[in-house]
Amino acid sequence: MTTAPGIRPHISADVSPAVRPGGRPDRHPPLPAFPFSWDGTRVPPEVAELREAAPVRRVRTIAGDEAWLVSSYELCAQVLKDDRFSLKDTSAPGVPRQYALTIPPEVVNNMGNITGAGLRRAVMKALNPKAPGLTDWLRAEAHRLVDLIVADGPTADLRGAFCEPYSAGMHCRILGIPQTEAPAFLRSLDIAFMNSPCPVAGARLNWDRDIARMAALLDDPATHGLMGELAALRDDADHAHLSDELLATVGVTLFGAGVVSTSGFLTMALVYLLTHPIARDLLRDRPDLIGPGVEELLRVNLSIGDALPRLALEDVRLGDVGVRAGELVLVLVEGANLDPEKFPDPHRFDVHRDNTADHLSFGGGAHYCPATALGRAHARIALEVLLDRLPDLALAVPASQLVWRTGFMKRIPERLPVTW
Questions:
Q1: Membrane-crossing residues (predicted)?
Q2: Which CATH number covers residue 270?
Q3: How far apart, in whole angstroms, are the C-alpha atoms of residue 256 and residue 188?
Q4: Residue 314 lies in a domain
Q5: What is the CB neighbour count within 10 angstroms for residue 222?
């Protein structure tokens, strides 16, 4: 196996030579542990160092396995577009893991399963932000939540009081389940999206409970939207293969992945704006720039806390490295999105970049996120309302006092205290 070139020693928390039994030093220092940092206010210094010195580098994952970490835009895009790197097979038994699975292995390739079951058209229609009344609902809901924040002032936790309920409400509306269901499904997500080195007992308990709850909603006369449409398919002989468990899995996974992704990005977009007041003031004073501003926030934000995993299905040459079949490859999105070879002066917030939309925050290739337009609309409307209603929005604590969640698929602060 080809070994990637070395990098500067402080990449690893422990770079002193390991000592073998008998006191002899091991010439192979420990691999860098990945992820590098959970702090969402700054890019880990290791990112640029790796990209420059070894854009394909061996690291040690949370699960304790070895993986290739890819950090340049060109090579990250190559992995995402190359069918020889598989998402589905990262859940196969015995393969190197990024972290322990918290969902059933067969659910890892969720959109592939949806397509295989003949449900892709219904799901894509539900995720369309141009669905009748959806953007009006989002705007009204954003105003409702701001009303509550102002009434409860003078400070608020913007993540808990706005980002999460706004996103959860949107997904309840898309699924066509009562808004009162949001807290029940939300309470599972802190465990469902953990990055743990070993299986998490609560994950299976929550999964079984949520599947049973969503399955029961299939027979609820108040259910409409996507889940109502899926429930009606059970009476169609052409869809006799659809079990209640399969349909409930669609609802549970769309709610969980959708809420974590959209609320996580919105939270981190706000963290960026609140710690970069020039960018905040630009979007506040020029609301016509919020659309392209969201695209640039997608590029510079650090909400993806780990990396996008793929398993090599055959031997592949990746840059200067030979990746062997069966090895784990991790696509470092923040490395790609901040690569100066692709985005000149990458740390500058520039809503006029010609290629901002080339970022990899929605993935790429066959597993490009199907809810990209919805995610953009969700964030754009939220920022329009927040910056209009709360023009002096600011952190209520020093940025250094934000507490960052660890061992999670998204970088998020536990709380986002703000004043206005």
A1: 246-274
A2: 1.10.630.10
A3: 8
A4: yes
A5: 10
